[in-house]
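Need tokens for this chain, all 189 residues.
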Amino acid sequence: MSYQDTRDQLAGFRKQIFEIREKMHAVQAEIEPQEVEDYTFTTMDGESTSLADLFGEKDDLIVIHNMGPSCRYCTLWADGFNGIYDHLANRASFVLTTPEEPAKQKAFAEKRGWRFPILSHQGTTFAADMGYTGEHGFEPGISVFQKRNGKVVRVSDSEMGPYDDFCAIWHFLRMIPEGPNGWEPQYKY
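Here are the structure tokens for all 189 residues:
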């Protein structure tokens, strides 16, 4: 197949993906919100804060379910959030949660230069209640919450993993004919 033919075919697929995403967004907009309890988290400075407090002045809250420093993939995603944090925080509150002990996570985050709020859900059922634990422990994902009628509700969520829409590197690597070709994220190159 010629380069131009391939390019045209890929453009058609991208249009189909866009159309499917539009359909997904329409379904998402109709979701029945899931009321959640007002979980308590620990900040990296050891202070307690509630889920409701994380909204600040915003009505929307994006929460990242991160597995902590032991996961190279979660670290890769969080490194990427650093670049888009200001843009996201302009529209909604944004935090990353981890099962790690706050002092350990704080040291790791400072070493990586992360600028976004990080909280520990250690000792709570938050990750499990949101569906981000499995047979091997904690799992990565995103939950979006809103304040409605004095309550906190979850209005969407998504798992995270290689080739998802939340980490651009996979899409860049897939443009190479061989794809990632065994590449995996590292803590340091």
